[in-house]
Amino acid sequence: MTAIGLKRMLKKTPASGTLFIIYFIIAAIAEPIGLIFLPDWENATQTDWIFHIATFASLFFVTVYTIIRLIRKAHKVRKNGEKTLRYLESNGLLEAAVAEYNHPGKAVFHANDRDRSFDKFAFRDNTLTENFIFALSSNQIIRYQDVEEACLVYYRLATGSYDNVVFTIFTKDGDEVDLFSSQYRLMAEPLYDLIEWICSVIKSKNPDCEVSDDIEIYRRGGLRDKRR
User: How far apart are CA 218 and CA 227, in angstroms?
Assistant: First the structure.
């Protein structure tokens, strides 16, 4: 990777998020049109009218809400990249970051969408280098000294069962950075070994931060964090 390539990377938004925004915009336009072309309006009763209009209105507002949510997520990812790029350039660290990322033999891991928001770059590698945490799936590069806490976050489904397990970094600026994730049912000894290694590296680089694979946060929907 070159400095130009890193700049271009940090200015992008996930393609999956963009595609879903376009899809839901088309759906929002198509839904009212579909209401007009429903068959047999002439023979429809008042109850039929109310039912169909209420159904389409509900679908329309849910679609618009989804569009707004996806756009906000896409904007956040773009802001992550802009913030990272400003930080690297203003501190003269861009070339150093590129050199460290290009170093051979680094361990790589991935973070997927924690809550189906399509705000992650699914095919980007995350890694730890000598001076930086590359969370490129979230469009971020962080220095170890900017980490305040790092721990596991468990995301639960509406049924109450666990879905995703995400090793998350909390920065001094208040950002949450997903570094590594896996489905709960796939968690096994090798993955826990990787998490322990990540913890040990971050702790060795920043002894003042709170890093643990024992501290766990549980989340479901809009509920507040629950620690165990």
Answer: 6
* Beta strands per DSSP E along 61-209: 108-109, 126-128, 132-135, 140-143, 147-156, 162-171, 176-183
Q: Which amino acid is at 26?
A: I
Q: Tens digit of pLDDT for each residue in 168-180?
A: 999 998 889 999 8
Coil/strand/helix, residue 81: helix
| Cβ 88 vs Cβ 97: under 8 Å | yes
The answer to whether 140 touches 101, Cβ cutoff 8 Å, is no
Nearest to 157, CA basis, from 72, 223, 213, 214? 223
**pTM, entire model:** 0.77
Rounded Cα distance between 18 and 112, Å, is 16
Q: Where are the beta strands (DSSP E) in 28-183?
A: 108-109, 126-128, 132-135, 140-143, 147-156, 162-171, 176-183
CB atoms within 10 A of CB 79: 11
In Å, how far from its chain's centre is CA 222? 16
The CA distance from 210 to 227, in Å, is 14
SS3 61: helix
pLDDT in tens, 45-102: 777 667 777 777 788 888 888 888 888 888 888 999 999 999 999 999 999 999 999 9
Helix (H) or strand (E) holding 226: strand 226-227
Cα dist from 65 to 20, 61, 77, 134, 224, whole Å: 13, 6, 19, 32, 22
Give the span between the Cα atoms of 128 and 109, in whole angstroms: 10
